[in-house]
């Protein structure tokens, strides 16, 4: 029975040692503004956000390329989160809103569809890949150069393109 008690202690210690690893942020620490903008795209393309929007009504197939066209349309742009420090909210209000999980768009980064916009500086290009059912985002410090960040994730809705 003594050994059984020691086992519990070792299991508890093991869990306590592993638990902090579950809460670590494994995202890139480089390019924090571009990473914030990418989090905005991930937030807007999350299934729970899409289900609360007009996207699923307008596009019942729910393909990634349709999402990109929709989110940059006048109707889709209505779901965009506010710009950080944009004056719409006070600093305290922004902090409270961010605690709910809503990210803010960083003020120095533009979101653009499909390909880099040569007239803008730092930007995140948002593309959909219907064949693989993936969202692809590329972060650029300079649209003339190569992307410094590329992220992909599965789009949560729809099926294969026809």
- Give the count of structural domains: 1
Structural class: alpha+beta
Topology as H/E string? HHHHHHEEEE
Calculate Rg over CA atoms. 20 Å
What's the arrangement of strands in the largest beta sheet? 1-2-3-4
Mean pLDDT across every amino acid position: 84
Number of helices: 6
Low-confidence runs: 22-27
| Main sheet: strands, sense, barrel | 4 strands, mixed
Strand content: 5-15%
Question: Can you tell me the overall shape?
Answer: globular
Distance between the termini: 64 Å
Helical content band: 25-40%
Total DSSP E strands: 4
Please tell me about this protein's structure.
The chain has 162 residues and is of the alpha+beta class. It has one domain (30-154). It is 37% helix and 15% strand. It is built from 6 helices and 4 strands; from the N terminus they run H-H-H-H-H-H-E-E-E-E. The protein has helices spanning 2-22, 32-44, 47-51, 55-58, 64-71, 91-99, and strands at residues 110-113, 123-129, 134-140, 149-154. A hairpin with a 4-residue loop joins strand 2 (123-129) and strand 3. It is globular. Mean pLDDT is 84; it is low at 22-27.
Keywords:
single chain; alpha+beta; four-stranded mixed sheet; 4 strands
Compact summary:
With 162 residues, the chain is an alpha+beta fold.
What is this structure's SSE topology?
Elements: H1 2-22, H2 32-44, H3 47-51, H4 55-58, H5 64-71, H6 91-99, E1 110-113, E2 123-129, E3 134-140, E4 149-154
Parallel strand pairs: 1-2
Antiparallel strand pairs: 2-3, 3-4
């Amino acid at each position: 029975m003594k050994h059984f008690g020691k086992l519990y202690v070792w299991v508890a210690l093991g869990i306590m040692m592993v638990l902090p690893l579950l809460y670590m942020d494994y995202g890139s620490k480089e390019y924090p503004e571009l990473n914030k903008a990418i989090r905005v795209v991930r937030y807007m393309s999350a299934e729970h956000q899409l289900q609360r929007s007009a996207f699923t009504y307008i596009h019942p197939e729910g393909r990634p390329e349709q999402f990109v066209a929709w989110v940059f349309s006048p109707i889709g742009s209505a779901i965009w989160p506010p710009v950080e420090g944009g004056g719409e909210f006070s600093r305290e209000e922004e902090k409270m809103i961010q605690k709910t999980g809503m990210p803010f768009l960083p003020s120095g980064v533009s979101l653009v569809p499909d390909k880099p916009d040569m007239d803008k500086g730092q930007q995140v290009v948002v593309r959909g890949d219907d064949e693989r059912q993936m969202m692809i985002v590329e972060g650029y410090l300079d649209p003339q150069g190569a992307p410094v960040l590329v992220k992909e994730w599965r789009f949560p809705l729809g099926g294969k393109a026809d």
